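Severity: low
Component: inverse-folding endpoint
Summary: output formatting inconsistent between runs
Steps to reproduce: submit the following structure tokens with default settings.
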């Protein structure tokens, strides 16, 4: 019988050179044309009008715009409602046109232009367009990674949860089997052996859909917009979901930040192993990514930082607003998030080593 495996001698192999996916800008006009096309087709049997942006370097089994991140344009015409679905990928969405209602897990909320929200994994979700215009959203997920791992699970017929219902996993009353499982200490450095029950009864954190309405976010952005151009940090807020704890995410895989840059502010060149995708929705600006210079404007979608590629972004005379999605919490969970805040800074493993400083203290004191 033929062997169904082989050995690959890697004794002499050095580290594999990484294929940094080149920076790509998908212009506003192309996105608008795709939205129009989706709105013009007969409603597919899936009940969804959706188009995922594919990067030319993608070799994965599903479309992706960064190796571990997909961005899907999803359109609902007035009166349309998506059938419920649940999946073990998690999502972050931004409404880019119209308005609608999102029913995610036991939460239901209205969404309108530039609102951002998350969808926890395995929560059934349904969207409906109760307005008069097209309801369009950009939906970001970690599906490309799960598809690579061949573990992307879908439930195409989940029972939507009642709005306001309790968690499907109520707190356990009384003793857990885990509390009786053995714990054996090894040495003085913290190593232990634990009984099997520890593997199948993990401590839980409440993971639910949260929304950051643009009308509220916008007010706060004025503060970062007005910060002095000598600020060495970024003019933004991260949309923090407490379920992500110290990994500072919006979903368990991604952070979303909302930035408002003053005119003529140029960030320092830097790099991080997390990949970043920017959606610009006000103003315009420019970037240098792996030595390539480019300009962009409101409505463009940009693979702005392929993981570990040197890059920096800056505003032009109008300033800009951007949503950035980055697979930062995922990388912290993997202990792979390396970061170099300027090209003269050390390479730091964020989450295990002391992080970087900005001049915020000096600016506040001044
Ligand atoms: Fe960056």
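Observed output (run 2 of 3):
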């Amino acid at each position: 019988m033929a062997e169904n495996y082989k050995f690959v001698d890697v004794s002499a192999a050095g580290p594999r050179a990484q294929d940094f996916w080149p920076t790509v800008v998908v212009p506003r006009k192309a996105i608008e044309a795709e939205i129009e096309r989706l709105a013009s087709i007969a409603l597919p049997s899936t009940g969804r009008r959706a188009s995922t942006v594919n990067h030319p370097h993608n070799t994965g089994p599903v479309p992706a715009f960064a190796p571990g991140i997909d961005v899907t344009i999803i359109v609902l015409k007035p009166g349309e409602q998506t059938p419920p679905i649940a999946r073990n990928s998690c999502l972050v969405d931004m409404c880019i046109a119209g308005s609608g209602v999102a029913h995610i897990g036991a939460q239901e909320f209205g969404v309108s232009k530039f609102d951002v929200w998350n969808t926890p994994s395995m929560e059934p979700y349904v969207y409906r367009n109760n307005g008069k215009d097209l309801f369009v959203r950009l939906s970001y997920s970690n599906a490309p990674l799960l598809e690579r791992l061949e573990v992307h699970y879908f439930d195409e017929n989940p029972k939507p949860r009642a709005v306001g219902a309790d968690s499907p996993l109520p707190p356990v009353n009384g003793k857990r089997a885990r509390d009786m499982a053995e714990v054996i200490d090894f040495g003085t450095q913290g190593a232990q052996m634990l009984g099997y029950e520890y593997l199948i009864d993990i401590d839980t954190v409440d993971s639910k859909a949260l929304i950051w309405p643009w009308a509220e976010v916008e007010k706060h952005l004025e503060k970062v917009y007005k910060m002095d151009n000598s600020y060495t940090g970024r003019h933004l807020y991260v949309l923090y979901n407490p379920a992500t704890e110290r990994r500072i995410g919006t979903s368990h895989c991604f952070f979303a930040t909302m930035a408002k840059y003053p005119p003529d502010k140029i960030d320092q060149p830097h790099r991080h192993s997390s990949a970043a995708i920017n959606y610009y929705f006000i103003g315009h600006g420019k970037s240098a990514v792996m030595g390539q210079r480019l300009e962009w404007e409101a409505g463009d979608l940009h693979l702005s930082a392929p993981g570990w590629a040197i890059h920096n972004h800056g505003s032009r005379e109008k300033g800009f607003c951007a949503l950035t999605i980055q697979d930062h919490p995922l990388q912290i969970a993997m202990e792979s998030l390396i970061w170099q805040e300027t090209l003269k800074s050390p390479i730091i493993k964020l989450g295990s080593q002391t992080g970087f400083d900005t001049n915020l203290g000096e600016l506040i004191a001044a």
